[in-house]
Each structure stands twice: as structure tokens, then as C-alpha cells.
Amino acid sequence: MSDCSHGEAPPTIGRRGFIVAGAHFAALAVSSSAMWRHAVAAGTPVQDPLLDYVCDQVIPATDTPGALGVGVPAFLVVAIPHGLAGAKGDEIARLRRELDKRAGEDFMRVDASRRLAALSGLDAEAFGSGHAGHDSAWRTVKSLIVLGYYTSEVGGSKELQYAPVPGQFKPDVPVRPGDRAVSNDWNGLSF
Description:
- The chain has 191 residues and is an all-alpha fold.
- It has helices spanning 15-42, 49-58, 72-79, 91-103, 112-127, 137-150, 153-159, and strands spanning 161-162, 182-183.
- Strands 1-2 form a two-stranded parallel sheet.
């Protein structure tokens, strides 16, 4: 239910803000597409258990392949050094240090429950309401995992329901169990 039901005006974005947001998303989508081309062209699978683990935790396989299954680790090793989504280039090393510190030793050597607890704690801090985790590498890495997955062929056409021609805006559309979100060239403009 939207906030508009209480007689309040819906939040609006001005034309300039809409254009800037649209341009930003378009540039991000184009950049993401270029990163996927570079990752595929490299053709070498990424051999980093940490990236495999975090990708699998963020978007696990269900009835469609997850982030690991579509090759998001390869996307990350190209996207991060190229500065996609504001990456500084050292996020993988910083993430490794952050997780090792939380685990009290090498993150990838601890048992599965300690590993999940360390990652969950880092996630809660990084995306919590306080400012303590806002400089965490996890914010950038997790954002790029999601971006990489949903700009992959599987994420954009099998996980989402691709609609090449967007329809009219319908704020109250019934959703049934099993329905998938819609993917098209205009979805990012609402971010």
C-alpha cells in the first residue's frame, strides 16, 4: 500500500532528476554490458572460493541458476578494477580482510555456520541504518553481484519476465505466487 492512501501526495521527482537518474542507469547498464563482454571474452573461470561463496549466498540457485551459475565471479573481477558502480578497485581484498577479521581467522577456513554468521553480521552492519558500515567493501561487492546477475542473460530473461515493450504504469497489480518481476529496457528508470 502506498503512502498516498492517507491523503498525502506521492513522492515526486522533477524532470531534471528523472533525466539524470535515467542517464545514470543507462550508463550503468551499458557499462555492465561491456563488463559482461570482457568477462566472457576472457573465458577463464575465476578460481576464487571467496567470490564463489559470496555470490552463492547473495543469489543462490533456485529453479534458475544463481549468481555463481551465471558466472558473476568473472563479472566481478572485470567490473571492480574498471570502477563500475563506484568501485575503487580494491574491494575484493578489502572484503577478504573484513571477513577474516569477523571470523577471527581465514574466513574461508572456518566452518559453514561461522562463515554465514560473519557474512550476515557484515551485511547487517554495511546496510544498517548507522554509518559504521557505509565504507565497507561489502556494499560495493554485493551491489555488483546483484547488478551482474540481473544484467546477465539468465537474470534478465529467465529470472525476470522479459517484456520488450513496457506497458502502462499500474501501481496495484495483483501478484500471485510464482509470478516473476518484469524486466525491460525501462525498469531502471524507477530506481
